[in-house]
């Protein structure tokens, strides 16, 4: 997020958007890796966010992830005003804080599944199962 803030302050809103998305994505990828889950695209990251909502009951994670996706879209479309982007960067920071506070499985809980996390496909059903 430091790079996002630097780019925002320099007036490069597109790069600020992409750096903010990258920061949030890295935290979601860390959670995916800790659970032995794939994380190669937006679909996987959304599934990880949804899984974390189910695990924690923190619906705000899902809301903030959607905002992060809009920040990522801004990199390509350049549609946000400076004020809107500034608010959404604050939302990205909020998501990162929530992800930092969300416990990851202990190594013993996830060691078996980590060996094949790149090959494993998953989706979360309505009942929360993977």
Features:
single chain; 130 residues; mainly alpha; Four Helix Bundle (Hemerythrin (Met), subunit A)
Report the structural category.
mainly alpha
State the name of the first-level CATH class.
Mainly Alpha
Give the total of beta strands: 0
CATH topology assignment: Four Helix Bundle (Hemerythrin (Met), subunit A)
What does this protein structure show overall?
This protein has 130 residues and is mainly alpha-helical. The protein has one domain (2-103): Nucleotidyltransferases  domain 2 (Four Helix Bundle (Hemerythrin (Met), subunit A)), CATH 1.20.120.330. Helix content is 70%, strand content 0%. Helix 1 (2-9) runs antiparallel to helix 2 (13-34) and helix 3 (42-56) runs antiparallel to helix 4. The model is unreliable at 111-121 (pLDDT under 50).
Short description:
With 130 residues, this protein is mostly helical.
Secondary structure layout:
Elements (H helix, E strand, L loop, with lengths): L1 H8 L3 H22 L7 H15 L3 H18 L4 H20 L5 H8 L16
Helix pairs in contact: 1-2, 2-4, 2-5, 3-4, 4-5
């Amino acid at each position: 997020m430091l790079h996002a803030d630097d780019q925002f302050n320099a007036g490069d809103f597109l790069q600020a958007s992409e750096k903010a998305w990258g920061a949030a994505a890295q935290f979601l990828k860390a959670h995916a890796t800790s659970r032995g889950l794939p994380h190669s695209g937006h679909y996987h990251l959304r599934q990880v966010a949804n899984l974390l909502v189910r695990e924690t009951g923190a619906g705000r994670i899902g809301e903030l992830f959607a905002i992060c996706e809009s920040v990522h879209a801004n990199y390509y479309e350049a549609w946000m005003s400076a004020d809107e982007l500034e608010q959404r960067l604050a939302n990205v920071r909020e998501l990162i804080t929530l992800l930092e506070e969300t416990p990851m499985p202990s190594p013993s809980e996830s060691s078996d599944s980590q060996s094949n996390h790149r090959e494993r496909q998953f989706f979360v059903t309505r009942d929360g199962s993977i």
